[in-house]
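Thread: Newbie trying to understand structure tokens

Hi all, I'm a second-year student working on a class project, and my supervisor (Dr. K.) asked me to get a predicted structure for one chain before our next meeting. I've only ever worked with sequences, so writing a 3D structure as a token string is new to me. If someone could post the tokens and maybe explain what I'm looking at, I'd be very grateful. Here's the chain:
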Amino acid sequence: MPVIRIIRRTSLPPEETWRRLTAWESHGAYVPLTETIIETPPPTCVGTRFTARTGVGRITFDDPMDVVRWEPPRLVRLEKRGRVVTGWAEIELHPSSAGGTEVHWRESIRVRGVPRFLDPLTAGAARLLFGRTVTGLLRAPGAPDAPGAG
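---
Reply by user tm_fold:
Sure, no problem. This is what the structure looks like when written as tokens:
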């Protein structure tokens, strides 16, 4: 499975960065044609389950995920347990000595039916998609500039 890594720096404190990145229902706003369905009651903890449903009309696929590690505001690990998309994702936060937070998003993704020789394309698409998601979630409401990339 290809593994991607996205690093972003933000002036937001770790607690606010954590709140934004783990607002699962907000992720769909940055993933085209996707909505997030929370399947367990709040608050998020180990065992929380949600599904990213992508598609149009009756042509959709689900990306169900379980929270398997929850250490706010430092680390969350998700396991992807779908029929189409499998793998895992980790979001790790590091307070910056200059203030703010450094975000490390790692994801290992496999799309069933896609041959392994296409892993570089899968990784490139995932890097673009999840990079856009992280940047969007960290952007202050109404702010024109995105957080810095690393």
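A couple of things are worth pointing out once you decode it. Residues 119-138 form the longest helix (20 residues). Confidence is low (pLDDT under 50) at residues 143-150. Feel free to ask follow-ups in this thread.
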